[in-house]
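Quick review question:
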């Protein structure tokens, strides 16, 4: 039996940071949809927002990204997934949603030097506008493609507002829930 944690949530909510910390603490592998999406956008000479707009009419983009995560479930491996649709594609996972205030998310992204493959924003306000536009496109696209509302918190086992929390605090909250999740899954065998 493998154990999987899926991290969903808004851009800038800390999915990648938290996912990498969780993977390190648990000795699990970490996978990220964001990395895959940014790579595809860069290969096409697009920003992630432009790629999201294009994916509204080109379903092969979502298929390319989603196929990676659909196949992961077939492996006998423990892992962490940073994916807005991870909870949907991997229903046997501990499904965690990370929320954050949009202004805080924009500030995090604006000041993050590791996001070099994304468009650099002239201001935090510009980043905030881009985040809101990108999120709206994703919500619409996923409802259309998969009939799933990524903002419906009933889809998740744990919802955390990361706005005023450190990555370590978030990891500890997830680990607490994950221990209970593991015990419950082991009893089901």
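Suggested answer, residue by residue:
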């Amino acid at each position: 039996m493998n154990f999987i944690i899926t991290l969903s949530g808004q851009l800038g909510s800390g999915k990648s940071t938290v996912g990498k910390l969780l993977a390190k603490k648990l000795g699990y592998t970490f996978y990220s949809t964001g990395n895959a999406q940014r790579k595809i956008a860069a290969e096409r000479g697009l920003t992630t927002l432009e790629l999201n707009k294009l994916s509204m009419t080109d379903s092969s983009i979502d298929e390319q990204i989603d196929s990676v995560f659909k196949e992961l479930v077939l492996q006998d491996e423990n892992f962490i997934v940073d994916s807005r649709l991870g909870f949907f594609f991997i229903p046997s996972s501990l499904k965690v949603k990370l929320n954050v205030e949009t202004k805080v998310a924009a500030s995090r992204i604006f000041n993050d030097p590791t996001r070099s493959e994304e468009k650099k924003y002239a201001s935090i306000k510009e980043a905030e506008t881009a985040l809101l536009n990108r999120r709206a496109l994703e919500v619409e696209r996923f409802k259309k493609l998969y009939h799933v509302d990524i903002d419906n918190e009933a889809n998740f086992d744990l919802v955390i507002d990361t706005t005023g929390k450190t990555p370590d605090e978030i990891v500890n909250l997830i680990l607490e829930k994950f221990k209970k999740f593991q015990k419950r899954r082991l009893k089901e065998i």
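Why it works: DSSP finds eight helices and five strands in the chain. Residues 73 and 180 are 21 Å apart (CA to CA).
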